[in-house]
Amino acid sequence: MRYPLLTCGFLWLLSGSLQAQDTVRTRKVKVLPVPAFGYSPETRTYVGAVCLFSLDLYPDTTTRISNAKVEFNYTWNKQIITEIGWNYFFKEEKWFTKGLIHFSKYPDLYYGIGTHTPDSNLLTYNTQRIAIDLQGLKKIGKQLFTGVNMKYIHFGNLTADSSREQFPELKDGQTFGLGYSFVKDARNNILTPENGIYLYLNTTYNFSQKDYLEVTADARYYKTWKKRITLANRFINDFNFGNPNFFDQAFLGGDKFVRGYYYGRFRDNHLSSLQTEVRVALVWRLGLSFFGGLSNLYAPQRPFHFADTKYNAGIGLRFLVDKKERTNLRFDYAIGQDGNSGFYVSFGESF
To answer: What torsion, rounded to 10 degrees, do the Cα atoms 297, 298, 304, 308 define?
Structure first.
């Protein structure tokens, strides 16, 4: 009963405030503060607050609407998570910037590296995390951008509930990376795309205990029929050449990368993942989604094998919190292989 009760609670709290919101159509800056509570495999039940910002500062131009989010959560796993994220288009989209600033104090689970790590390898560890990811991009063509990015990740005060001898890589560390990106962003909406494509290619050189190179290629396609049925596809490849820190390897799991697995349940140098989703608008503000995919992790010493491919599949409920900007609150339940599963609550789509 926990999941339906959480869902009903969310909808009840939001519905009253949203009635008045829909009557305001010309506001340049829209603020939507709401309580945050839900469930995911990594946190169990969590409570907190989130404030969503929609920035329509150039309504008479072709500039898409920008957005930002400020969020604080405390979880039943005694985790503290604070996060600020944004996507901002300057006038006529001549420049575009996006970023994420994250701090958390986080009890977590670690299973080791590779696609065959058994549940018996499970180790609980604690750490404090800081993550900063900043991008500045300039328009060089129609919805085509290029620019630089900077990232910084710090894992400190790492302690474990037992010996870490079988995991020598599990230790304090930090990474500073500088990179260059090409982006083709023809989506009609950033948080809830309905039509268009998104192509992202990034190369980042990371300075750490051992330097390594990360190359990311992310391709997405969206198509909507009769304003009710949306097909969304994503093919992502994340390659790390060298010896990345355990916390910066490619991984499966979580809300953004392959729902249905614990965040970081499987990790290795390289990830290839194909995900697809069908989103259907029903009545009032409600909708459904059906999603699934295939993913594989591998490395030079652990080559790609089709037999190691991991599947995931799931179903979700959508609640439209902002009719004008088409922003959804989503509730997703997904399953993976070998008894893995997850329930997720979040604003905006997974991709």
So the answer is: -40
Rg (CA), the chain: 20
| Sign of the dihedral through C-alpha 73, 74, 79, 82 | positive
Any idea which of 264-268, 300-304, 331-335, 344-348 has the lowest mean pLDDT? Answer: 344-348
Measured between its terminal Cα atoms, the distance across the chain in Å is 28
Cβ atoms < 10 Å from Cβ of 186: 15
- DSSP string spanning 149-202? EEEEEEEEEEEESS--TT-TT-S-EEEEEEEEEEEEE--S-SSS--SEEEEEEE
Residue pair 263/254 in contact by the 8 Å Cβ criterion = yes
User: pTM for this one?
Assistant: 0.85
Q: Phi and psi dihedrals of 228, rounded to 5?
A: -130, -30
Could you tell me the CA-to-CA distances from 140 to 93, 95, 184, 206 in Å, in that order? Answer: 10, 9, 10, 26
Per-residue model confidence as pLDDT tens digits over 286-318: 999 999 999 999 999 999 999 999 999 999 999
Torsion of CA 313, 40, 233, 131, to 10 degrees: -140
The answer to whether 288 and 279 are in contact (CB under 8 A) is yes
CA distance 272 to 235: 7
Contacts of 269 (CB under 8 A, 6+ apart): 239, 240, 241, 244, 249, 250, 298, 299, 300
Q: How far apart are CA 260 and CA 27, in angstroms?
A: 38
